[in-house]
């Protein structure tokens, strides 16, 4: 049978020109787009990099740590001076690592003769940069980030996720948790751990373990992350990987250290916290969900985007594991029931990181092509530098204006405390941290073992129940109420006798929520303490000087 070949018809497709344009005009238009598109992208990226750099410098140079961080720095200074943590003169409700970790900026502040608040900012900034650079190296090692442009974007995305806070929240435990945990998460989810030496994998686990110990509630984020990875590889072999084992052993070692050095925290403080601290977190899950519409929309959109784009991603496991971590952080946020912004930071950071890694992965081919363009070189860095030089003076001027306004708008607490010389014992009778950071800023002595009266709200809400008020989240027995009340009054008397504060500022609680955790509960704080005869005797040394309807100021007369 003769061999025959059927000729193949070659179909040539032609580009349909834009109506009204000749072929030459069409080519010129396409060439212009090809030239300007990389330039516009580079310009936008340079501007974004400048904004991120200015935001970072803003946090490091101008942020003023708020009450929580100021108290931890003050407590760390007292520990450095020889005061026993969780002893009769200093009791911290957070686990001891919060104070131990604050010893580092305090020591550096003494070394460089600067304030511990500024050193906390600088220390946090160095940790953020180190975490971002380490994370970028790990993703590059895993093959996820290819080329300088993608590496730059990966480092920037990590730095962005770790710095999405206000200036008042810098140095919060939640931020340190994210900073210390991110390299571990990215290395495990990207597959970089299989290409790392054992010593680096152990370092990742130790650093992550310290982060989790700083904020134990966030163990839920790590748990959900590991569950997603276990389902992804259909195995539990990560349970005996060097990084996970190092994390686990770090947590166990920390618990043992707490038991050996500050056992009273476990035996005394924790039971008191279980009995009373619930009063600071009575928001229901539905309330917390309703109060975060922006996060809810972004979270659902990220899950939908991953579902529809997962087959187009080179590493779909990485953003999915980070979304799982976001769910765990969200559960930890619900578990705390407070609605405080710093408690929400981990879930926001993990979500932003998941979205950024998904975007970098999705546009990786385009980024590779754009990186070849000559605009990504000296011109890019020149544009970013110019934007930074324009933005930074604006930020500096803004902060100086804010500082100038604050000089004339200080409240009675700040004005009163600022009038006393360094080393003066002072106290604010309140369920909130009203006395910080002025105490830290003016180097005053806090005349109490506690940062605030955190046991009182639970007692007040149970007292309101006995007078026909609403049922609190946790109803205490009369025996427990009497025991805690006696303890609170006795310790207050001991503190007043020991420190003899020159001034005591009393917060006036109202039903509309002037006092923290006292919304809807009318409570005479000073009257409650005056029911104790020993307190009445000690309080006879104080006379009321002034008040403004929110605070009354008392000074010691002898």
List the helices and strands and how they pair.
Blueprint: H1 23-62, H2 67-80, H3 97-112, H4 116-141, H5 147-162, H6 173-190, H7 198-214, H8 219-233, H9 242-261, H10 263-276, H11 285-290, H12 293-309, H13 317-336, H14 341-362, H15 364-371, H16 378-407, H17 412-418, E1 425-429, H18 438-441, E2 445-446, H19 456-466, H20 478-499, E3 503-507, H21 525-529, H22 533-539, E4 542-547, E5 551-556
Parallel strand pairs: 1-2, 1-3
Antiparallel strand pairs: 3-5, 4-5
Helix pairs in contact: 1-4, 1-16, 2-3, 3-4, 4-5, 4-6, 5-14, 5-15, 6-7, 6-13, 6-14, 7-9, 8-13, 9-10, 12-14, 13-14
In order across it, which strands form the biggest sheet? 2-1-3-5-4
Radius of gyration: 29 Å
Number of helices: 22
Q: In what range is the share of β-strand residues?
A: under 5%
Residue stretches low in confidence (pLDDT < 50, at least 5 long) are 1-15
Shape field: globular
- Structural class comes to mainly alpha
The N- and C-terminal alpha carbons lie at a distance of 125 Å
Instruction: Describe the sheet with the most strands.
Output: 5 strands, mixed
Number of strands: 5
* Averaged pLDDT: 88
Task: Walk me through the structure.
The chain is mainly alpha-helical and 558 residues long. The chain has helices at 23-62, 67-80, 97-112, 116-141, 147-162, 173-190, 198-214, 219-233, 242-261, 263-276, 285-290, 293-309, 317-336, 341-362, 364-371, 378-407, 412-418, 438-441, 456-466, 478-499, 525-529, 533-539, and strands at residues 425-429, 445-446, 503-507, 542-547, 551-556. The protein has a five-stranded mixed sheet, covered by helices on one side. A hairpin with a 3-residue loop joins strand 4 (542-547) and strand 5.
């Amino acid at each position: 049978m003769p061999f025959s070949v059927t000729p193949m018809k070659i179909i040539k497709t032609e580009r349909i020109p834009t109506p009204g344009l000749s072929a030459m005009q069409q080519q010129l238009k396409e060439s212009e787009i090809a030239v300007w598109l990389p330039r516009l992208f580079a310009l936008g990226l340079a501007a974004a990099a400048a904004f991120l750099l200015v935001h970072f410098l803003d946090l490091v140079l101008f942020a003023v740590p708020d009450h929580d961080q100021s108290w931890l720095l003050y407590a760390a200074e007292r520990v450095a001076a020889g005061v026993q943590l969780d002893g009769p003169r200093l009791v911290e409700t957070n686990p001891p690592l919060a104070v131990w970790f604050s010893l580092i900026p305090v020591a550096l502040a003494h070394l460089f003769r600067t304030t511990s608040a500024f050193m906390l900012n600088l220390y946090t900034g160095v940790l953020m940069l180190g975490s971002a650079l380490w994370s970028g190296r790990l993703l590059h090692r895993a093959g996820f980030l290819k080329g300088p442009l993608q590496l730059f974007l990966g480092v920037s995305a990590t730095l962005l996720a770790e710095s999405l806070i206000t200036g008042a929240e810098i140095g919060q435990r939640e931020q340190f948790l994210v900073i210390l945990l991110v390299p571990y998460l990215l290395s495990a989810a990207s597959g970089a751990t299989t290409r790392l030496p054992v010593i680096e994998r152990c370092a990742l686990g130790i650093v992550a373990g310290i982060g989790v110990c700083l904020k134990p509630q966030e163990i839920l984020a790590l748990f959900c992350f590991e569950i997603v990875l276990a389902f992804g590889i259909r195995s539990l072999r990560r349970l005996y990987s060097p990084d996970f084992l190092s994390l686990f052993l770090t947590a166990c070692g920390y618990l043992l250290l707490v038991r050996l050095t500050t056992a009273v925290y476990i035996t005394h403080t924790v039971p008191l916290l279980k009995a009373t601290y619930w009063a600071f977190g009575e928001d229901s899950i539905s309330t917390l969900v309703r109060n975060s519409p922006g996060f809810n929309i972004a979270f659902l959109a990220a899950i939908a985007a991953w579902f529809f784009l997962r087959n187009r991603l080179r590493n779909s496991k990485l953003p999915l594991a980070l979304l799982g971590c976001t769910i765990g952080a969200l559960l930890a946020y619900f578990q705390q029931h407070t609605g405080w912004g710093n408690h929400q930071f981990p879930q926001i950071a993990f979500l932003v990181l998941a979205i950024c890694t998904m975007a970098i992965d999705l546009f990786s081919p385009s980024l590779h092509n754009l990186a070849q363009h000559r605009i990504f070189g000296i011109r890019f860095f020149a544009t970013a530098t110019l934007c930074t030089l324009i933005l930074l003076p604006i930020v500096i001027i803004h902060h100086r204006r804010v500082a100038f306004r604050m000089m004339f708008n200080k409240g009675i607490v700040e004005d009163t405390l600022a009038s006393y010389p360094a080393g003066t014992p002072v106290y604010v009778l309140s369920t909130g941290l009203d006395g910080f950071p002025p105490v830290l800023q003016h180097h005053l002595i806090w005349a109490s073992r506690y940062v605030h009266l955190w046991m009182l709200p639970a007692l007040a809400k149970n007292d309101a129940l006995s007078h026909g008020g609403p049922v609190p989240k946790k109803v205490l027995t009369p025996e427990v109420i009497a025991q805690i009340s006696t303890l609170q009054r006795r310790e207050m008397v001991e503190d007043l006798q020991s420190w003899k504060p020159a001034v005591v500022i009393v917060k006036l609680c109202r039903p509309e929520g002037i006092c923290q955790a006292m919304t809807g509960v009318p409570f005479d704080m000073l009257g409650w303490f005056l029911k104790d005869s020993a307190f009445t005797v000690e309080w006879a040394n104080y006379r009321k000087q002034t008040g403004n309807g929110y605070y009354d100021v008392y000074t010691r007369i002898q």
